[in-house]
Amino acid sequence: MAKHDFKFLVVSSQNAVSKEAVEILCRQIKKKPNLVLGLATGTTMKPFYKELIKHCKRCKLDFSKVKTFNLDEYSGLSEGDKHSLRHFMENNFFKHVNISKKNIYFLHGDRRNYRKECSDYEKRIKSFGGIDIQVLGIGVNGHIGFNEPGSSFKSRTRRVKLSSKTRKSNSEDFPSLSSVPKYALTVGIGTIMDSRKILLLAVGDKKSWAVKKALSKKISTKVPASILRRHKDIEFIIDSRVASDIKLLM
Ligand code: F6R
User: Fold this and answer.
1) Which of 61, 107, 123, 187 is the most buried (most CB within 10 A)?
2) pTM of structure
């Protein structure tokens, strides 16, 4: 596998992380209005979407031709479920911009035939020529999407078991830990690596272990995000709290 350089940007705050990422993304949408965009959910993404919505309004950015593919969805949850990631996206982003409903693609966590659901999703991404930009967060254990430690770097979209760390970390969005689904559908690491450009956003000291490991010399499936350093066009955008504990190993 070829070795690639990667861009690494440390900014002062969570707000600044969102602003940087939004600027990069908006430049790309202006260049290619029918961009295929890979999206993530989670607490890191909330201020990013807020900033993106603001930017869309301020700069009249047109989302009508942009296609979006979200990374993941909890198994068993329908898109109308208020704990679903689809619901998160609707509330935090989709309903605030002029994206066309038909251009929103999402894994359906409640489809019985989840294998077909996952392979159809892969085919759909391919049919649009692949993801142009993938926006990523990172889990406290280094996961990307719901690709937990141990996931193959070649993995494609599939059903996965969530680690107890991830379930605990995501339990704030649920009434109790036991109600957090045990399984999820996620785009694979191989699928993520096929994206033409990747932006990874990380904020807060909770993420510093994962980012440190992802940037360290050792690329290992124990830290799924570590493979990203081999991507030909990746930018890590992190805040100073993430960076405080990182001795740069580059
Ligand atoms: C969710 C996703 C996850 C999150 C990660 C960080 O769609 O892809 O990999 O990006 O779990 O989540 P937060 O930002 O909530 O810490």
Assistant:
1) 187
2) 0.95
Mark whether 62 is an active-site residue.
no
Amino acid at 24: I
Query: Which mutation among 18, 45, 187, 208 tests ligand 1's pocket best, with the greatest number of atoms within 8 A of CB?
Result: 45
pLDDT tens per residue, range 184-206:
999 999 999 999 999 999 999 99
Instruction: Report the run of H or E that residue 170 belongs to, with start and end.
Output: helix 164-170
Question: Strands, DSSP E only, in 71-156?
Answer: 72-74, 104-105, 133-136
Which residue in this structure is represented by tokens 């193959």?
A: 152
Tell me which residue range forms the domain holding 187. Answer: 7-243
**C-alpha to C-alpha distance for 79 and 106, rounded to whole angstroms:** 9
48, 131, 138, 191, best to mutate for ligand 1 pocket (most atoms within 8 Å of CB): 138
Residue range 123-148, pLDDT digits in tens: 999 999 999 999 999 999 999 999 99
Pocket, ligand 1, Cβ cutoff 6 A:
40-44, 71-72, 85, 137-139, 143-145
The structural domain count of the chain equals: 1
Asked if residue 232 is part of any domain, the answer here is yes
Whether residue 1 is predicted with pLDDT greater than 70 in this model: the reply is: no
Position 57 in a domain: yes
User: How does 225-241 read in b/e, with b if 16+ C-beta sit within 10 Å?
Assistant: bbbbbebeebbbbbbeb
Residue 68 lies in a domain: yes
2 part of a folded domain: no
d(CA 219, CA 224): 8
- Strand-pair partners of 179: none
The CA-based angle 9-168-108, given to 5 degrees, is: 85
